[in-house]
Amino acid sequence: MTLSVAIEMAGVAVFAVSGALAAGRKSLDLLGVVVIAMVTATGGGTLRDLMLDRTVFWIARPEFIIVTGIAALLTIPYVRFARPPERFLMVADALGLALFSVAGARIALGTGQGALIAVVMGTITGAFGGVLRDVLCNEIPMILRKGHIYATASIAGCSLLVILLGLGVSGGVAAAAGMATVAVMRFGSIAFNLTLPVFNLPGPKDPEA
Amino acid sequence: MTLSVAIEMAGVAVFAVSGALAAGRKSLDLLGVVVIAMVTATGGGTLRDLMLDRTVFWIARPEFIIVTGIAALLTIPYVRFARPPERFLMVADALGLALFSVAGARIALGTGQGALIAVVMGTITGAFGGVLRDVLCNEIPMILRKGHIYATASIAGCSLLVILLGLGVSGGVAAAAGMATVAVMRFGSIAFNLTLPVFNLPGPKDPEA
Amino acid sequence: MTLSVAIEMAGVAVFAVSGALAAGRKSLDLLGVVVIAMVTATGGGTLRDLMLDRTVFWIARPEFIIVTGIAALLTIPYVRFARPPERFLMVADALGLALFSVAGARIALGTGQGALIAVVMGTITGAFGGVLRDVLCNEIPMILRKGHIYATASIAGCSLLVILLGLGVSGGVAAAAGMATVAVMRFGSIAFNLTLPVFNLPGPKDPEA
């Protein structure tokens, strides 16, 4: 439990930074940036907790809101002075995805759910905050577009976690392996520009020649 | 109860196909198509269950997720080989609407809610998945636009169901009548291009001459 | 409790009018206008109740749905005959924000939550319906854009409410002071065009000269 909370606290901070950076590209005001950061950081876990009928994690521990707010506010002056490297946003986001996916799957297992629901909940916890961020910023969610290996990495990491736990591996080792899988797949797909195949329905504009 | 599950299972499969076809128009990747299909198929029932404080239906029965995934994956190769008729998407969607609306209203009644909440829940179950699909695809939801008879059909079918049950008609007959009403209204509005009146607020560009 | 219900009933009606007016700018059909009005009026309270694990307020009291529907339907013919003053939408929205923010914070306190969660819930209750309205209308939510003092007013009013209650001030006086704070800040920001600072991340197009 303490491990889960620590993982989730780190994930919240990292996602809040990622959300604040993303919001900064949209000419939002100060509060808008903080709101987007909070939604990015807490959206996935909130939906997971509503679905699993748990107390929403940041209502149970309001420290999460404080951490998110501080992370967002610290991000704002930072980018005033130093321009973050182009890929800093993606790296912060990948770490948040790894932390949240594993935390979400562990929480689902802890409430007695089976392997399939644990993987779904891990993926929702990891990816849904970013979906909300993109919807609020009026963009098609990044995870759905152009073959980004994103939710795929979350699914793979959560699946490995569930399999290792099923084989009797200790919780800490399984969590570390799951997080490493998510992060490596995400970094690898950025570094080597790997994508999933894109699916196109032949539309009316298709010449069919 | 078994009837509700059977209706909902059919609705999930049909909506997953509809969602996959809609996603295919957006150049999403393989996983994006599956995600949109799942959201379209499960979004309405998930919101209904959260609001009624029930266990989310696909957490109670993870088979729903498997059915959705299979339906989405089968849709992808199909449209590679055969171009679906222009209206196939609308027909699949209309059947899903009919099945889900009635299932949602029956579930609300089963939890002890009255007629008004049953109609609202039926409409949410039927229409909200498509709303989420359109929001994720960054479009104004189809059900709100240009006078489509969509949620209207759902409201009419759910209302008939509630009235027939109140008159003592058996559950199966009332469900069939409600579904037929939704489907006939939806097909009729497509076939005859029927619409609701459009409401326009005179805007700043209004010449007022 | 009766005070909360009365406040929330007034807020629902006012937000429904605001939602119907906003929807009128989007060429939606009759039902689309009613749906947007209902979502604007009930979205914030619904999310609050789901998060606090309460019975959703309009399921507990279906009168709320009837009030919303009537308010939306009355708005439609009205704007056919009389063009509402340019700022009528903003005034209705500001009143709804004041009523809902205080009602939401009071409800959170009533379920035993602390001051921070009460402020968050008040802000969500007041502002989330409008966020949903803007997302459905495919716009970046107004509360996030261009320095509108909107959620800020809600946060200030809820904070004052919590502080006054902590100092032993009676519930009615604290509620009135909180609502007045929200309304005055909102009206003041409209009248004097006050904004929060806008946060811009230096982007690729930034000349950096």
TrEMBL record, chains A, B, C:
<protein>
    <submittedName>
        <fullName>Putative membrane protein YeiH</fullName>
    </submittedName>
</protein>
<dbReference type="GO" id="GO:0005886">
    <property type="term" value="C:plasma membrane"/>
</dbReference>
<comment type="similarity">
    <text>Belongs to the UPF0126 family.</text>
</comment>
<feature type="domain" description="Glycine transporter">
    <location>
        <begin position="7"/>
        <end position="76"/>
    </location>
</feature>
<feature type="transmembrane region" description="Helical">
    <location>
        <begin position="59"/>
        <end position="81"/>
    </location>
</feature>
<feature type="transmembrane region" description="Helical">
    <location>
        <begin position="30"/>
        <end position="47"/>
    </location>
</feature>
<dbReference type="Pfam" id="PF03458">
    <property type="entry name" value="Gly_transporter"/>
</dbReference>
<dbReference type="InterPro" id="IPR005115">
    <property type="entry name" value="Gly_transporter"/>
</dbReference>
<feature type="transmembrane region" description="Helical">
    <location>
        <begin position="115"/>
        <end position="136"/>
    </location>
</feature>
<feature type="domain" description="Glycine transporter">
    <location>
        <begin position="91"/>
        <end position="164"/>
    </location>
</feature>
<keyword id="KW-0812">Transmembrane</keyword>
<keyword id="KW-0472">Membrane</keyword>
<keyword id="KW-1003">Cell membrane</keyword>
<feature type="transmembrane region" description="Helical">
    <location>
        <begin position="88"/>
        <end position="109"/>
    </location>
</feature>
<keyword id="KW-1133">Transmembrane helix</keyword>
<feature type="transmembrane region" description="Helical">
    <location>
        <begin position="6"/>
        <end position="23"/>
    </location>
</feature>
